[in-house]
Amino acid sequence: MLRRLVLAALSLACIVIVLGAYVRLSDAGLGCPDWPGCYGQLSPHHAAEAISAAQADAPQGPVSMPKAWKEMVHRYLAATLGLMILGIAMLTWRRRREGAPLGLAAAIVGVVIFQGLLGKWTVTLLLKPAIVSGHLIGGMTTAALLAWLACRLAGLRRIDVPPAQAWLARAAFLALACQVVLGGWVSTNYAALACADLPTCHGQWWPETDFHNAFHLVRELGMTASGDLLSNAALTAIHLSHRGGALVAGALLAALAIALLRRTATRGLGALLLAALVLQISLGAANVLLSLPLPLAVMHNAGALVLVLVMVRINHAVRPRAVVVRRGRCLNENALA
């Protein structure tokens, strides 16, 4: 039951993350400008009068009935996920004497509680980039921890690899995490189209940039810390940082995929990683060249999630092969046993 519940929660977490990207990218994040209800009601249907009045006051504003439903469906599913994770923690507590990973389950509960607060602040603090980015990172972290818990409970086989390859897997995962953070910062600052050409930006390899205001965390959406409008140079800096991060993370992930493909025991994992990486790079390029169509933008977020889950599986699977030195020879510890 515990394994099935974890897999169900992981599946729902993936849906919530992708739906959250759709809500954000379709400008529905303030479809219900209060929390946890919608204009103090359980659903947009019950708040129809207030939603209609808000839309009449600002026809091009963030409030409309379709946007309100997008936002509330996201909240309903997120609340369901939270309850499922509490159920996982309770079952893990009951099985703690059998070796169930109680610490990991407790960590997931802590992340989800903080994630709920970030979801509230996303609305009540009017889409501050730091809060929205934190909400995205929290969702990815929740999915990654659930995936790790699923691997633990499934008792999946561990594969001994050379220590350098195991460390490469860790380094690639860290680079991917940093790239996800940069991608979230691009999305929450609406900087995806700051560079409309590829591989150059504004026809230059290094156009004018403003990194100081680009990465100032405590500020309003579209504004600098001093209250001025965020310049195109700042948006360009955000976009170029994401491209630079893609080069570093992509190189490490590609190197890891090639290393995994060279070993029979890890060939399947290497092929899976390489396929996910090629797909994500293609989606990123297509978003720039096609001016960020909504389906492709959502798929790019989903592609990042797939890469995270693949890297969780790889890092769970590979472990550095222990060696001992005996009479001048390096021998595999398993062989000695």
Question: Can you offer a commentary on this structure?
Answer:
The chain has 337 residues and is mainly alpha-helical. The chain folds into two domains: 1-155, no CATH class; 159-337, no CATH class. Helices cover 66% and strands 4% of the residues. The chain has helices spanning 2-25, 48-57, 65-94, 102-124, 129-154, 163-188, 211-214, 232-261, 267-289, 294-317, 333-336; strands spanning 159-161, 318-320, 323-326, 329-332. Strands 1-2 form a two-stranded parallel sheet. It has a two-stranded antiparallel ribbon with strand order 3-4. A hairpin with a 2-residue loop joins strand 3 (323-326) and strand 4. Helix 1 (2-25) runs antiparallel to helix 3, helix 6 (163-188) runs antiparallel to helix 8 and helix 6 (163-188) packs antiparallel against helix 10. The two termini are 35 Å apart. The model has no long low-confidence stretch (mean pLDDT 93). This is COX15/CtaA family protein. It comes from Niveibacterium microcysteis. It is a multi-pass membrane protein. The chain crosses the membrane at residues 73-93, 100-118, 130-155, 167-186, 244-261, 268-286, 292-312.
Q: Which key features would you list for this structure?
A:
11 helices, two-stranded parallel ribbon, two-stranded antiparallel ribbon, single chain, mainly alpha, 337 residues, 4 strands, 2 domains
Question: Concise description?
Answer:
InterPro entries: COX15/CtaA_fam, COX15/CtaA_HemeA_synthase. With 337 residues, the protein is mainly alpha-helical.
